[in-house]
Amino acid sequence: MLPNSKATEIIDKYIRKFLEMLRTQEIKDIHSNGLLELSKNLIDELTSNEIDMLVKTDDGTYTLKSEDTDELMHSRVGALTEGIEKFAIPSMVEMRDSCNILDLCSGMGYNAMACLSKNKNCNIDMVEISKETLFLSLCLDIPLKEHELIKEAYFEFFNNFNDIDIDKDIDKDIDKDIDKDMVKKESNSKREFNGNIQVFNDDARVILQKMPNNYYDIVCHDAFSPARDPVLYTVEFLDLMYKKLKDGGMVISYSSSIPFRSALFEIGYNVYEGVSVGRKRGITIAFKGKPIYHTICNNDNAINENKLDKNENDNHNTNNNCELQRISEVDERLIALSPIGIPYHDEKLDKTSEEIIFNRDIMRDEFKNNLSIEGYNEHNSYIYSTKRIKSGKIDEKLLKIQKNSKNSVECINLLKKELFK
Ligand SMILES: C[S@@+](CC[C@H](N)C(=O)[O-])C[C@H]1O[C@@H](n2cnc3c(N)ncnc32)[C@H](O)[C@@H]1O
């Protein structure tokens, strides 16, 4: 899914003007008067009553409407607040000496600037399919000084294709050499910023395949919701991401969707629930291997998994400042026992959202049919409605498995085994 086409058509008009002004040197850098005037006109047009595409969130920062106007690019709580509270703080980026961050679906760059505000020694790869959201960031006044670093990176990105006719469909030119799309912010290293920002304007499924393996410490996964746009929530895409993570590397997503968490478990991530910001459910935090900087709460006790390895009895640490929770019992049961737990698939990383959703619906029907084949499961005793799975009114044996399992991975595997035995 993309930002709303009514908004992107207007922004395209301004990109054309911007490129022309770069050519004529009326705009030379992010502080040029020409850009300030262009920005004011763009924001006025997008916020006008007639267009109404740019929305002010509760913290005063802006977000865009998406193609489905019911879904904004950020929650009402605040675009910048989300970047700080859902991504930068839970990533514990400030604890790290240096780190490689993948800002997936970088849009206006809120998550990247939030991470930079906590730690200047980051290398950030920003991947975004819509050049319009990148341009919009150049025109916004976001009250965080690290926004300037993002603006400079985005400015250079547009500077790089000022000789390309914007009317051509440059977004779909996926064969172009990746180096042409990336911008090294060497100038930044002269100042307090020690890292490197690179901008990639293409489908994340294409870009990620070209990235090195075992490279990222943190992935800020900020795609639109999986129910509407599952392309970046499929088993195959998340598996590719797993390969790109270092050991101990983490993926953070605001989404707590069951098929998304189910896919993460299937691949082998260690999946936890983080804080909740402006929603009932917590964010999803998934690790390749064990967490290095985070503490895990379990049954009211905080357990540091590294400690657990050394001494099984040392698991009654009463520190309540833990950042990760085991996912809820209901979620574990839904992932293991319900067709809701069937994840999305995109085998060749090229399907549309509609195809992915359609194929999952077929798999959900197959799951139900498998369980109801006579003789497959003698008394069909494990076929439960979602309501019963949620309320826990299911066979005692299954509940016991859940109660006795040490963690979600063990629990989900054992429940699945019991269901299909
Ligand atoms: C929820 S918004 C993310 C907001 C963003 N993090 C920010 O700070 O503004 C989702 C973004 O994902 C982008 N997107 C959608 N599909 C994509 C894909 N396949 N690859 C890369 N970006 C994609 C959209 O254009 C949109 O900007």
UniProtKB/TrEMBL annotation:
Domain of life per record: Archaea
MnmC-like methyltransferase domain: residues covered:
189-288
GO MF entries: methyltransferase activity
Coiled coil stretches, renumbered: none
Q: Which BP terms from GO are recorded? A: methylation
A Pfam family name for this chain? Methyltransf_30
**What keywords appear on the UniProt entry?**
Methyltransferase, Transferase
Name of the protein in its database record? tRNA U34 5-methylaminomethyl-2-thiouridine-forming methyltransferase MnmC
Organism of this sequence: Methanococcus voltae PS
